[in-house]
Amino acid sequence: MSTQKPALRLEGILKTFPGVRALDNVSFSVIPGEVHALMGENGAGKSTLMKVLGGLYQPDDGQIIIDEQPVVMTSPLQAKSKGIVFIHQELSLAEELTVAENIYLGELPHKSFGRVDWKKLHAQTDSILQRLKVGFNAKTRVGELSIANQQMVEIARALTVEAKAVIFDEPTASLTDAEKVVLFDVITDLKSHGVGIIYISHRMEEIFKITDRISVLRDGQYRGTLNTAETTDDEITQLMIGRKLDLSRNASHHEVGDVALEVRELSCGALFKNIDFEVRRGEVVGFYGLVGAGRTEIAETLFGLREPTAGQIYLDGAEVTIHSPADAIAKGISLVPEDRKGQGLVLGMNCRDNMTLPQVEGLKFGPFVAETDEVAIFDKYKERLDIRTPGWKQTVGNLSGGNQQKIVIAKWLSMHPSILIVDEPTRGIDVGSKSEIHNLIRELASQGYAVIVISSEMPEVLHVSDRIIAMYSGEIMRTFTSDEVTEDNLIQAISGITSNRAA
Ligand SMILES: Nc1ncnc2c1ncn2[C@@H]1O[C@H](COP(=O)(O)OP(=O)(O)OP(=O)(O)O)[C@@H](O)[C@H]1O
Ligand SMILES: [Mg+2]
Q1: pLDDT by residue (tens digit) across 50-103?
Q2: Helix, strand, or coil (residue 285)
Q3: Which residues approach ligand 1 with their CB closer than 6 A?
Q4: Angle at 378 between CA 287 and CA 89, to 5 degrees
Q5: Which residue segments constitute the domains of the chain, with CATH numbers given?
Q6: What is the CA(295)–ligand 2 centre distance, in A?
């Protein structure tokens, strides 16, 4: 395959930002009809390399070569005209415009006399949307769509041009399993038309499923290219982080304490019903299930974002009503939300201030023993979570996607809640930092925190949890201790095949 002529080549790309050498002499190429993964730790330079190719950044040195011709890429529109389509890690849509306007922004079809041909625009758009099997249409306003659907709009945009290469920068981070199937079909289709696909992801199982080759960056440097069919997890990880991962769980056996949180017969309309569980101090309870099983909604109810329609919540044995997030925080509960982009960060503010920004008024008067020395907090978590940035003064918007996520996680951890709920804690996080976050969760438990981890990744729940609650369609199907759980019975439980009640 590698003897084939590349669709495009990047050669000797150099890119620096103040205090950071993001790309150091990187070369990379894509062959027509291949899916080429670009991997590396958070901050390794993947998005930056693709932004150079996509005309968003000018390299300090190096060349882009398309059809054997060097090209100076000065803007995203020019890149698009050369057949390079970029589906971004951070969504870049105009929320107040419709789906059709977003897809054809800058290239709306016109009638003579320069008027927009709305009929044509909407027809063209709807035919693309049909291919993607989405549940919205050309005239829907983008602001009304879920994050996953906005991602589908970005993908739809890629299908409007004669593409030579399509760049997917972590496309599945917020997609459901059904949407992923559609995405992989789209990729297979593009591939069969000879389009070169560049695929950035931290999810190994996807990499093995859909890619042909894997190129790895580390600290802005090219580390090598592997054939997917001939490599292993370990080999890729080794190339990415320069060492083998220690996945063994910290054998810190600690005492499990009293029940901190107890939930009885909790229901919220059609979202979830009759939920019963408890979490003890020193314990990590994992919630596993498909997207839509009701896990996030339970977390939101415990955090005062939703009002339950029935049932009781007890904290340290006393029944409570949680009126709002401020109330939840005052009672010692905190939630690291699933959608960290929308709920967690002020992009224009520096790292330290984002990390220590009090979430809600009144925080300082709650029972938290909040850490107070802001720079010390920053330094501690920068080290612990391996946050790659020159220093606390850096604007958060300039951090790589995964490093932005680490800032949000650090912010919640530094508040020392007594009950910590984390929803998809390692989404977008590289494998090395992932295991660091898992260790941190275990460590918090050993210090006496009660922790709930919601995750769609089976290895993650298996690894961090003392007990696992399997949910299906708004109900708890089964609770497993870490001794009795297996991958098989977990899959059965979340598919609704077995249940406590049937047993
Ligand atoms: N506009 C910018 N200003 C300053 N530094 C930047 C800018 N863009 C990227 N960087 C820095 O360049 C480095 C590479 O970032 P990049 O976004 O390419 O990482 P990545 O490999 O995509 O990581 P992730 O997996 O977290 O998305 C990081 O240290 C990042 O902070
Ligand atoms: Mg990135």
Answers
A1: 999 999 999 999 999 998 899 999 998 899 889 998 887 766 788 899 999 999
A2: strand
A3: 17, 20, 22, 40, 42-48, 89, 388-389, 398-403, 430
A4: 55
A5: 8-241 (3.40.50.300), 261-494 (3.40.50.300)
A6: 27
